[in-house]
Amino acid sequence: MKNISSKTDVKVEFYDLDPMNIVWHGNYTKYLEAARCDFFRKLNYDYMEMYNDGIMYPIVKMDFKFIKSARLGDALTVECILKELEPAVILKYNVYSGNNKIMTASTMQIAVSVKTGETMYEAPERLRKGVENFVE
After folding, report:
1. Strands (E) located in 1-136
2. Where do the domains of the chain lie?
3. pLDDT tens readout for residues 67-93
4. What CATH class has 5-129?
């Protein structure tokens, strides 16, 4: 499989902070989601297109390692790297504030039929083509 990745920029907003004035740990999930959505858009196969093709890709596993806290106004870069496509989509993430890595994470998603709810063990053709033709 081709090793592909993309980068997405996000900004830390006031509503992302906890009482200690650092990003609340749960908000990193939305930064990863922004990067994941951007990654699939760059593959020309976003979540709505998957759904219209009868496929959902729910998250079944998430892993986080927090290294340093992000703060109000920080400009973060989330690098999203495809590690596996089948039988599950596994993505690795590196989150940077400037040149400093502040977090790593990974997610696993499983293809599920919209109609039956059954697990699908092969990636849809459009997703495989998107990976083959990926250009950052």
Report:
1. 5-11, 55-56, 59-66, 75-84, 88-97, 100-113, 119-120
2. 5-129
3. 999 999 999 999 999 999 999 999 999
4. alpha beta
